[in-house]
Write a structure and sequence with these properties.
Elements: H1 2-30, E1 34-37, E2 52-56, E3 66-70, E4 78-87, E5 92-96, E6 106-109, E7 113-121, H2 124-131, H3 134-161
Antiparallel strand pairs: 1-2, 2-7, 3-4, 3-7, 4-5, 5-6
């Protein structure tokens, strides 16, 4: 009996966490924000590989702020580095990772800016990277959904298979 209560409490806690996280992600998307998984240690110790960044839209970036932008090399990668200088006349922002040498500064176009990093969630990026894998999605989403659906179909079948629901045999 006690184990049953503990399992119910844990289930409720998991559901509350899942619903809360879902609502937070929906709100973040509605205001134009993104949650990005950090892939390298170029900004260590501010954030490290495996962390997640909360990124909100930004119209003006100031030196010292952490900016997320599409990599100029064009491989569909978003980079998050500290802005070291801005040039509004050229429409560029110079960025550099905190853990990188000075010679690694990069000038980017303001049009490639995704937004400004406003928060870090340690470790969440690792979970995001795992959950994005197709086998994990199949294992955690599609298989359980299929099992639940099969169980419900079986319940409906058993319910209507009772004699009270059978058509009378009119002979």
């Amino acid at each position: 009996m006690r184990l049953h209560i503990v399992s119910r409490v844990l289930l409720v806690i998991c559901i509350v966490i899942a619903v809360g996280a879902s609502v937070a992600l929906i709100v973040l998307r509605l205001i134009g924000g993104q949650l990005l998984a950090v892939q390298s240690n170029s900004m260590h110790p501010v954030f490290a590989a495996g962390d997640a960044l909360i990124v909100l839209p930004a119209h003006h970036i100031q030196p010292g702020e952490i900016v997320s932008y599409h990599n100029p090399t064009g491989n569909n990668i978003v980079v998050s580095h500290r802005a070291t200088a801005t040039d509004e006349s050229l429409g560029t922002i110079t960025t550099k990772g905190d853990a990188q040498k000075q010679s690694s500064a990069v000038a980017i176009q303001t049009s490639s800016v995704v937004g400004r990093a406003v928060g870090v969630i340690p470790g969440l990026g690792r979970i995001m990277n795992v959950v994005r894998k197709p086998i994990v999605v199949v294992t955690l989403v599609y298989i359980p959904m299929g099992l639940l659906l099969a169980r419900e179909i079986e319940k409906v079948h058993q319910h209507f298979a009772r004699s009270s629901y059978r058509l009378a045999n009119h002979q």
